[in-house]
Design goal:
By secondary structure, this protein is an alpha+beta fold. Helices cover 11% and strands 26% of the residues. A hairpin with a 2-residue loop joins strand 1 and strand 2.
Length: 87
């Protein structure tokens, strides 16, 4: 399995629109604005050697619902979806 490959469980995720720094995210390849999101742990060799993987930073992977291109957003919290922002 590759670094950014999706598992079969992620195909069941719901696509949504997201905001990052107040701007709507669009896929650079297909210009689609619907994405599936998932949490990704950014591991380093030193922290893995010391068995401290939990202390590494977290990123959120946004995959385009149309072409499956991936965008990675480094943040402790998930990017807000437009549905959550508009509520």
């Amino acid at each position: 399995m590759g670094l950014l490959s999706r598992s079969s469980a992620s195909t069941e995720e719901v696509a949504a629109r997201y905001l990052v720094v107040g701007m709507e995210v669009a896929c650079p390849q297909c210009r689609n604005k619907l994405f599936r999101s998932r949490k990704a742990q950014l591991n380093t060799a030193a922290m893995s050697f010391l068995n401290l993987d939990w202390a590494n930073p977290v990123a959120w992977d946004l995959n385009s619902h149309q072409c499956d291109a991936g965008e990675e957003i480094t943040s402790r919290k998930p990017p807000p979806s437009l549905a959550a922002v508009n509520d």
